[in-house]
Amino acid sequence: MRVAIAGAGAVGRSIAGELLENGHEVLLIDKAPTAISVERVPQAEWLLADACEITSLDEAALQRCNVVIAATGDDKVNLVVSLLAKTEYGVPRVVARVNNPKNEWLFNESWGVDVAVSTPRLMSALVEEAVSVGDLVRLLRFSHGDANLVELTLPEESALAGTQVGDVEWPQDTSLVTIIRGTRVLTPSRDDSLEAGDELLFVAAQAREEQLEDLLSVRREDTAG
Length: 225
Description:
The chain has two domains: about 1-120, Rossmann fold (3-Layer(aba) Sandwich); about 130-215, 2-Layer Sandwich (Alpha-Beta Plaits), CATH 3.30.70. Strands 3-2-1-4-5-6-7-8-11-9-10 form an eleven-stranded mixed beta sheet, sandwiched between helices. The longest helix is centred in the middle third of the chain and has 13 residues, at about 75-85. Strand 4 (about 65-70), helix 3 (about 75-85) and strand 5 form a beta-alpha-beta unit. The termini are far apart. By secondary structure, it is of the alpha/beta class. It is elongated, with a radius of gyration of 20 Å. The protein is built from six helices and eleven strands. This is Trk system potassium uptake protein TrkA.
C-alpha cells in the first residue's frame, strides 16, 4: 500500500515509521527544509514541497496513493490537503489530524476527510479510559455515517457480565468489533461470553452512544427489580 503523509514533524515521522515496519510504501511531504530529515526515516521517500499546491501533489503522484494522511500542525493545511487528495486525485482513504478540538466539526466528508483524529481528544480519552470503568469513551470519529470508535470497560456489577455476545440485544447502528481481555485481543463471536473488566470496542452511531452506555453499565440489582 502506498501512503503519502503531509507533515514530516514528529507525528508524521512516527506514523511513517509504523507503516514502513508493516511493509507499506511511504512518502513524506513537507515544505520546511528543516523538516526534511531523511536520516530519521531513511526507508521513506521524501519530498520538499507545499502539500497545498497542485503542482506539488502532481509531483508526489498522489493519484497512485491508497491513503493520504494530513498530519501537519496546522488545521487549515490539513483540511486543504484532505480536500485536494479526495477531489482532485480520488484517493480512496484520507485521514486528517485535528490539532484544535474546536475545529473538529470541519473535518468531515465535505472536506474529503474519511477519518479525523483529534490528538488532544485522543489523549484526554486515553486518560479517561485509564481512570474510568463503566463510562463510554470516544476514541475516534469516522466522517462517513456519523460513527465513532468508542470504548467501555465492563464494570464488575454489569448485568451483562457472563452473558454471551449473541444473546445481547445491542442498540441499532452499533457493532462490537473487539474485546480486549488482559493481554488478549479477541474478535467477538456469538458464543463468546462478556467478562467483567473486558475492554469493549464498538463502532457506533453517535446517536446511539448514550443507549449503549446505559446497556453496558446497568447494574445487576437494577435488572432484578
